[in-house]
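Section 3.1 - Work completed
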Amino acid sequence: MDQEMLTKANLTKEEIDELCRSTEELIDMSRSVAEANDHAILEKYYKDALEADVFIRDSLNFHPVLHAVKTAIEVGKVISPDRCMLLAVLLSPLTRCGILSRNDVLNNWGKETNDLLEGIENVASLYEKRTAVDTDNFRKLLLTFAKDIRVIIIMIVERYVVMKAINHHPAQNLVKEVAYEAKYLYAPLAHRLGLYKIKSELEDLSLKYLNREIYTRIAKKLNETKVSRDAYIESFIAPVKKSLEQHGLNFEIKGRTKSISSIWNKIQKQNNDLEHIYDLFAIRIILDVPKELEKRDCWLAYSVVTDMYQPNPARLKDWISIPKSNGYESLHITVMGPDDRWVEVQIRTKRMDETAERGVAAHWKYKGIKSENNLDIWMNRVREILESAGNDPQQLINDFKMDLYKEEVFVFTPKGDLFKLPLGATILDFAFNIHSKVGSTCIGGKVNGRNRKINHKLVSGDTVEILTSSNQTPKADWLSFVVTSKARNKIRQSLNEKRMHQAELGKELFYRRCKNRKVEIEESELMKIIKKLGYKTVTDFFVDVADEKIEPLQIIALSEQIHQKEDAKSEVKSAEAFQLIQDADETDSTSDVLMIGENIKGVNYKMAKCCNPIYGDNVFGFISSEGVIKIHRDDCPNAANIKMRYPYRIIAAKWSGKSGQHFTVSLSVVGVDDIGIVTNISSIINKEKDVVLRSIAIDSHDGIFKGQLLVGIADTSRLNELIKKIKTVKGIKDVQRIK
């Protein structure tokens, strides 16, 4: 890139020099995978962005262009250069600053690069939640959002680049935040993927930034003992090397000091000081052998070492017979070396060493390596795909879909706390997951700032705020949409508690009424009555008593009938005295039928408001919980439900004598909107004898007249006559009695 342009682009001289060097290194590295126009197109967009000065430094004051180039170089070192991965890293600053659209990426570099870029942006969006990154749930959500294993590798490498650059950075709080994130999120992910070199360096740098005093003390001590330690390693290796050569093995042998973080962990674990930590270094034997001879030669090398130095059987770790779930294969032994010092020896092949150093990506060069380890489901799935990918590493990585947690969703609270729920979980499931009381009083929620109903299904990444009300209680229909066992159990428990409470209230009410009437009903007798009424349990009966669906006085009356053995057809004078269980159709006696009319006295009845019966309608009586008989029309909208649920409270009824009073009837009138139509209807009603117009409500829309009339009328015959006359009014289309 042009030096003058870079100078104008908010870059220091040191940054410009570093950017130029890094760019040349990256171009050289990517020659084998780059396509003809990649460099030219990228350079054009970067020039446009630099000239427009649209790049914004991040919170650590890193320039995004230099940071992207350095990250791309490290990605190429960690993994065999992958064109799409390198492009995604380099394009990310351009899309973030708006100089390049995702559509441009799709057109110039294809869907695969665009998908990787989307994964990087998705993962970046998680950090806006500011949640705790050191949780297993966050790692799982990170993998869910990434959608591609290469995005995770890019994110690990990007953090590694940051960690190397922030030594002595002035913003120490930010440095510690980045170090904490690297220690608890990216180092474990690097370990899971077998990126041991990066994992080790991330841990060392994290210790350095989080506890510089400890780091410096261990580093200083190691430096002071370096000469003697190197001499000891050489004295240990020399006889081993000679013996391996005598056995005809082709190998490389080297010694290394363990990482500072590893030594610090040992100090803490053993509750010891540095002077008493003996296994500060490890010897590694790397065999260059064909795949079919790997196990044999590794065990041969093991035999050579253990014949020379006494092994500690308790420290033998055989990851050759059964590799680790992340692909790691090696044979670890600890032996007593010269001067009675314990030394760890690692034996592996070149293929195994590359896998260990470079992780899962190293598998791209080796196929057909069978794994029998099923300890880690996540990495087993990775390996299965890796091992079945044939000879095309790009196809291998494309086929790896990050759907490991497709049966789970991860959602945030407004404060950034992260929760895991099963797929299909609703706002109500989330509320119960937080606390039973929150779930029981939940009335809905805000998902990503928008109001949602209680049964709204959540997706990974949602931020959910629960809305509650002290008046809310669990409902039976909640069980139809919650999916978590906790929510189901708590709802059922609450409903059962509420039901038992209602039953206790009903029981107390029932026996209080019995006491007021000075009536004693034996429990066995009550059980017979309850069974006769169709109840399956005593609880169901007492709940209905509490809900006033059945009147205690009716049970008392039935009990008295049983005791007195009176005729089941005795005359009924009040609602309390009516026979509860009877079938009016089974008898011809008029004493079984409630007679209603103007001159009937001594019977407490009312006309039901749901259907407004009038003289001449076919009717029946229903004993209400208040002890009043409600008179309903046979075609009442509620008739079917009443007769099905409470057959024992139904009484046959019919009109007595002649009509002598006015009943209220509602009529619906529909017609063409016309001047005078209301006047014409009113005129007809006023001319009718014994018919009173009590109210009229009208509505007119798009030329259609709709009205509702309330009239007082004596019987059905006069009502039918009135309807016929209203229909004769010009423009009237229909007249119906409202049920």
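Second construct:
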Amino acid sequence: MGNVLRLVRPVVVVDEGHKAYSDTARDTLCGFNPRFILELSATPNTNGRHQSNVLVNVPGKDLKDEEMIKLPINVVNEDKGGWKQTLAAAQGKLEELAKEAAIFQNESGRYIRPILLVRVERTGKEQRDSGLVHAEDAREYLIENLGAKPEEIRLKTSESDELGSEDLLLSSCEVRYIITKDALREGWDCPFAYALAILSKTTAQTALTQMIGRVLRQPHAQLTNHPLLDESYVFTFDQDVTEAVNGVRKGLEDEGMADLASHVKVLRTDGETMRQMRRETLQRRAAFSKLPTIFLPRVLSRDEGTSEGYRTLDYDRDILGQLDWESFRFGGADSFTAEMEEKLRRTIVRIDIDQRTETDQTVMDYAYEALDVLPEEGLDVAFLVRQLLDVIPNPWQGMRVLGETLDTLRRRRMTDERLYANRLDLLKAMKIDLRGQVNQAAENLFRRKLENGDISLRPVASRNSKLNWALAETLEIDVSDEDRVLLRKDGGPLEKSLFEKVYQRDFNNLEKETAWYLDSRQCIYWWHRLAVSQHDYSLQGWQRYKVYPDLLACIHGIEEGKYRFSVLETKGEHLKGNLDTEYKRKLFELLTVYVETAIRTGVLDLKEDTPPISFTMLMEDTWKQELAEAGIL
């Protein structure tokens, strides 16, 4: 049968594909000799050793638009309560939902029976009196104190599966409460599950992350247009609200719906006061409301095959894919030193109480064993090559570099036993050396392309082009009652921020000082806080990760009605001189020089409404001087 499959070369469909990345799983899949592997997953692996090639992405918004999920998610935290108060609050919501469901059924004929999931800390028979919330504690409290009927409650645990194959959607089914610990963590969902009560205080964050998906499905994949029945509910107690929200958002991310994080509404009880997260729409200040659309240029790559002649720079295609990989070699092979021992030492420590002394002191006996280093299968070259993939992404080139390195070391009389014993040190040295070579070659290529016009930082003529990054005319953000608007140092309102409000939470100390300084300068027309999200303005350079600048300043030009932009990136003193900071500084300096040269020579022909732009790195100890050098006085 195996050989028949290999001859047929089947199409393999892997559900929950993110679980199929182990060597055994991949060897099994490859053993079918497939012509195509289709992976289905809520969380594809796009950053690991084995990367998924995402063909189709269905974001959470599409599920919401198709009425498949109940949103928003309401998180209710009993600030000073305990598990009993939390369970009572959740049961109260369930009763409210049941009444609404009865009204809805009378109107539409559709049957919905809301169910409450209860997550406890213990379920085993011998774990009842440990001081932690047990499943039987929750069952008894529901029956004896909250009026639940015994036949309405089911336990779903590794020891007791009272649900069995019961069809929860039948109108004859009586289940309204399901108590569990981990049995419903994944792979189970019921559209009648509306509320989740987390009674495990110490592991609440884990429970929120792992179980949020269990209450998301919309009954019949059709909205009821009864707000209570089109939302889901989570109840916790004595939690940090921000961490609780992050737990729910992480759960959405794990369910493949990270784009719906803004649909988490937080309600926190504080006496009789209810404070909640709200969606706020920010408008531009009245003084700036008439501004035209503000475009910032992106780093583009020339592409004659497109209508606009350019496309967004693709790091893998335009940088990595065009490096001369044959030129890379480990430069330290001739000088690498390895420990002389060809055996490893295992240390065994026995800890006991010395009862011969009056104080019963703890004593430790050490023993050592010498182990043969090299396993029977010898040096695992494939393993070593895989460890180099984050630096040398082409495995054939990685094999070449490693092979040349091993040949050199063996000519230096290093045995395979010594190489195996020192393999991790060797890999570390190789990665440091090769990463430096790759980064330098990538920078050289980037600079050459910038000089000859294959890479350009420019606005595209068409105002509707997706290649231009347009600054939003309104901003939608999530704020809570605790969030404070940023004011001037003297307590007065800001005057030159582009939008009517900015919040303190979005600024660290250096960014705040810079914002205050910009707001006080006569030369500043307006300024804006960038990098609030990873979808904000970014710059692609010669390294993989994009740079997300912090601030944008619009500065009055020498001529009346003329302006220029300054993009600012701040760095604390503790980051001065590190590799990330130096890379950003070099990129900013290069792009600024490029823009100035391109404008002066006429290579970059800016339209009348497109101001020139500069890029500046601000360090904590010299930021005012650097702003002055950038013309912001």
